Amino acid sequence: MMRQQRITEGVLLLTVFIWGVNTPLMKIGLGYLSPLLYNALRLLLASIFAWVILFYSGTNKPIKGCDIPSILAVGLLGFCCSQLLLMIGLPHTTAGNASIMNALLPLTVILMNRIFKKETISFFVIVGMLVSLVGIICVVLGSDKNISLDSNHVMGAALILISQFGVGYYTIFSRDLLERYSAHQIIAYVVTLSAIVFSMVAMPEVSLVSWGDVPIKAWISILFSGLFALLLANVAWIWCVGKLGSTRASLFQNLVPIFAIIGAWILLGEVLTWLQWLGMILVFNGLYLARTNGKENFLIRLLEHLACAKP
Question: Per the confidence metrics, is the pTM higher than 0.70?
């Protein structure tokens, strides 16, 4: 059991590492293409390869009629709408606001699990989530990302927060589908539905792009983001959610900005501040706290030591 958990957590770490590194790599492609068109291209690429992988995996099954509404809800209401809201919200808020809203995914998963009575949540999971959230705030404050309460920026942040509920829905309810279908098949339908929607929305922008001027590095960005960040990472994500549960898996999402700043440090030469290092320690400790239910945790030991210390 412990070995299986460690394998699953290792796959999760690799998944969020891919998502983290994907952030600075996406900046390269977004320097030449609009967010909508960029997402449409990477989704189309992901959907094509998703069906190829599904075919060779031998796990494709006929979809039962009773499961069609669930697949449509997970694919459109969960995955696709969250991507659209994120694309709409990002230009209308600050990078700092966006990072904090994205870090609220574990909270949205906890709330939705509470509402739909899908999973039981332990005290230490909640504490670990809060510690990780404080860590993300430290990472944001230690960077050049601004946090703004301006009304225009708040509206964009609200859209990103709503998008996190979409990701939460996708994360929680895709687990139900895993009882009957493989992760490959679920993601094939999810990315295909999203690719169709994004392609229709981005269609007017196709004629506005001088495709001959798009450099090879932008296409490499699309290739990595489509094949690894969208396709393979989401297949792994769904599989891990089925093994660990949506709440515990969602806590690993807070490692995405950590790997993102490390990736920016390596790829773009950005400097890490002491507050960012503190934030990274808190995020990892919060994750460990939730994983072990407080056993042998640095923060718990420190608090116990302070409580027992003589005045």
Answer: yes
